[in-house]
Structure formats: C-alpha cells, structure tokens
Amino acid sequence: MGGEASDSIRRKALGDFLRSARARVQPESVGLPAGQRRRTPGLRREEVAQLCGISTTWYTWIEQGRPVTVSPAVLARLAGVLRLQRAERQYLFELAECTDPEHERMQGDALPPVLADCVHSITAAAYILDRCWNVMSWNQPFLQLFDGWPVRDARPNLLRYIFLDPAARSLVVDWEERASRVVAEFRADAGAHTGEDDVREVIQELLRESPLFAHWWTRHTVIDRRGGVRDFQHPREGRLSYQQITFRLATRPDCKLVMLLPAAGERAKAGSE
C-alpha cells in the first residue's frame, strides 16, 4: 500500500477515534451544562474545540481525516479534554505520529513488581533496560555471564558498563566493533528522548568520560537493535556465544526485555556434557 493511502487510513482512524472518545464524555464532567436539546451523546465538536483552544473548523477537519498537521500540544489538550486513559493516549499519539510531550512524566522510575519478577522465571540470561539503558532487573544467569556486574555497580547502566568499566573490554568479544554498534543502537532507541533530562544526563556523562563514545556519537549512525549473535570471553568459562532477542514491554513501552539464548554450538556442547 502506498504512503499516501496509508496516511489517509491513519488519519481516518484518528478521526474515528476522536469521534468515539468525544461521544463518551459527559458535558458536566468538563464543567459544561448537560442541556435539554442534545440529540447525540457526549460533547459537541464546537465544545471540544473551545476547551482545547482551537477553532471548530480545525477540529472538524481533524475528525474528518483531512491532511492537517496537529501539534503535540494540541493532542495533549485533546487527550485531557476527552479523558483518555494511558493506553488511549498512547494510541492517539501513535495515530498522529507524534511524541507525547508528557511521555517522561508518565513513565515511572520503578518497574511494576510483576515485571521485575518475571525476569527471574526465565532460565536464559535475561534483563530489562529502560530508555536510558539503565538495567532495571536481571536474573542469576545474566549475573553469572557478566561476572558479578551489575551487582557491583550502584547505578547499573549498560552504556556506562560498556564504555567505562574495564571489565567490558575483556568480556565482550570484538569490543570496539560491538561498542560502535551499541552507540548507533542507543541513538535509534532514545532518539525521540535525547532532550529529556534522564537521557541527556547519561549522554553528557559518556561524552565527558569516554572519547570513544564521543567519537561515535557525533557520527550520528543509527541502526536497529535487532539482536543476533553475541560472543563473550568469560574469565572462567571461556568463549561463549548467545543469540540475543529483544522484546518491547507492552505495559512499559519505555522498557525492553533482552534475552541471551545459548547459540546452537553452546546448546550442543551443553548436551554432550
């Protein structure tokens, strides 16, 4: 399907969603009188427009799926007026292809316990990263693979480990090549949030402390974190190979679960022991 047709479908979905959400809002819930002559449930278009500080014509065009550009600030006001829940708000911004300006405030610092605990039920090495690549949770196989890190780190962060912890250069096979890819992966991962305080703090620290990170960061290379084979030279177990698989968490889209599954050769070796 062509890009123009796809955009038209997306705009229509956005308009249909706003119309449905508008019909669910009771006028009195936003400080308006219910009135006696309402022939349809919910708010009128002109009422939504007034509450959001935009013209009725402009709002009508949005609901009609016309090719108009809606700013993140207007979308945020619409989300508030229409009383959108978290998932609905996320859906709204995805349809509009915008970043929610309140994304940072809406993300909690701590993982819900059920997400943190699920890592421990995984038999392979597994860990959860937030958008700054802070390691939020990890299991025992991961701890063993990384030879005691991140327990020994007061602020475990995968980027800081790779670039600032000398142990990483020994553990990660082809460290320099992997480190350059990590920078490009992180730029793709955090691109929409590089101006936010927590992400900016990590970047600025690494720019100060690691000339190599600074060199690759300024090259603006971007690649997907697709996974693939990851090789390690463990201080006691020798050369180990893993297949990396990454999942985005539905209930915390700013976080991802990373699993390191023993590569085929490692599985065969384990089976023969």
TrEMBL record:
SUPFAM superfamilies: lambda repressor-like DNA-binding domains. It comes from Yanghanlia caeni. Transmembrane segments: none annotated. This is Helix-turn-helix transcriptional regulator. It holds the Pfam family HTH_31. Residues 17-89 form the HTH cro/C1-type domain. SMART domains: HTH_XRE.
